[in-house]
Write a structure and sequence with these properties.
Structural class: mainly alpha
Order of helices and strands: HHHHHHHHHHHHHHH
Distance between the termini: 33 Å
Number of strands: 0
Shape: globular
Largest sheet: none
Strand content: under 5%
Helix content: over 70%
Length: 364
């Protein structure tokens, strides 16, 4: 129960600071391109820390990495309160992103070694996102309050980690700087990177798009909450399904979902697309995470690299979304996301199975 509470609350804390960053950055005078950079730096530092601490968790104690990550997050998220212009906001988001990347790989490995369902555990993160979106929507664009509340929730997570039991895990003899896990599973990782690059391009400007369609702060929060709410319900029911089928379905549904956003004439017409995209990410994230964790002995590293791909996509996607929106408009960004999803599907069909087979043969 404690590890489940930590998963739920940490994701809620993250989202409280996340939802209105584009709107807040715009109020500080940031252009769309600068907004993309602010969102991107957060993802860049998440990418870096996910790889570093995923490997560290495989070589050392999982509980120590988890505890350290939450301790750093308490300070990093509170420092966002002092952001007064685009530059200081970018620095604050960089620190927050680094703190967020420390613990996910270790958490996934912790749950795997306790033989719990990864799908159900991951779904609690989506439930946390839903709660965070709804709460942020109710509070509105009062960023000092949202930043402070995020830090407070992370502090509670930090205290909870002192009650986690230490668990036994295999002692791995792997190089700290080895890229073998990344290379052996390149089809899974790179395909996910492509799809999520397009998605992040959309999310980087999506609150602004919803405002253009007539949504206020409350409705932005409600619409965002639909995505993780559906994820929570879907992810908990994916244990019987094969990873391969989930991954392929995730890419194809992504295409449909992003195209539906282009056709919306009101913020209410965005809602069906949120259901579709939520299903697509549920299939893709659970299928990809289970696949790499099951095929590789260095569980935290394999799971951490999923988070690194999400971070890398966050860097490229947020900048791409800002540039496309600035030059061609919001809808061009959504069409781009559909194109990236198709590319991810094709790349996985070409590389995914071969990479997975190689990983299995090398480790058995």
């Amino acid at each position: 129960m404690r590890i489940n509470n930590v998963q739920f609350l940490s994701n809620m804390a993250n989202v409280l600071s996340l939802l209105f960053i584009p709107v807040f950055a715009s109020s500080l005078g940031a252009s769309y391109i600068e907004i993309g950079l602010i969102v991107g730096i957060y993802s860049a530092t998440t990418l870096l820390s996910s790889f570093i601490f995923g490997r560290l968790a495989d070589l050392h104690h999982l509980r120590t990495v988890i505890r350290g990550g939450f301790g750093f997050a308490v300070a990093a998220f509170f420092l966002q309160v002092f952001a007064t212009d685009p530059s200081t906001l970018m620095l604050a988001r960089a620190l927050a992103g680094f703190s967020v990347g420390i613990h996910p790989g270790a958490l996934i490995a912790y749950v795997h070694y306790q033989k719990q369902s990864l799908g159900k555990f991951i779904s609690l993160g989506s439930l946390g996102w839903m709660a965070g979106f709804l709460l942020a929507g109710v509070i509105g664009v009062r960023m000092d309050l949202l930043f402070g509340l995020s830090s407070l929730v992370y502090a509670f997570c930090f205290l909870q980690t002192f009650r986690l039991k230490d668990i036994e895990k295999p002692q791995l003899k792997v190089s700290y700087f080895s890229l073998n896990t990344l290379l052996k599973n390149s089809g899974t990782y790179l395909s996910l990177f492509l799809r999520h690059t397009g998605a992040v391009g959309v999310w980087a400007i999506f609150p602004l798009y919803l405002r253009e369609l007539g949504a206020g702060a409350f409705w932005i929060g409600v619409i965002y909450a639909i995505n993780p709410a559906v994820q929570f319900l879907i992810m908990r029911r994916l244990d019987p399904f094969e990873n391969e089928k989930l991954i392929l379905a995730g890419y194809l549904l992504s295409v449909v979902g992003f195209i539906s956003y282009v056709l919306a004439s009101s913020y209410l017409y965005v809602i069906p697309g949120m259901f579709i995209v939520a299903c697509s990410w549920s299939f893709l994230y659970v299928g990809s995470t289970r696949r790499v964790v099951e095929l590789n002995p260095d569980k935290a590293t394999a799971a951490g690299l999923i988070n690194s791909m999400i971070g890398a996509a966050g860097v490229v996607g947020s900048i791409l979304g800002g540039v496309l929106s600035q030059l061609l408009g919001f809808r061009a960004t959504m069409l781009g996301a559909a194109l990236f999803s198709i590319s991810g599907f094709l790349l996985y069909k070409i590389l995914g199975r071969a990479a997975g087979t190689t990983a299995f043969l090398d480790d058995n």
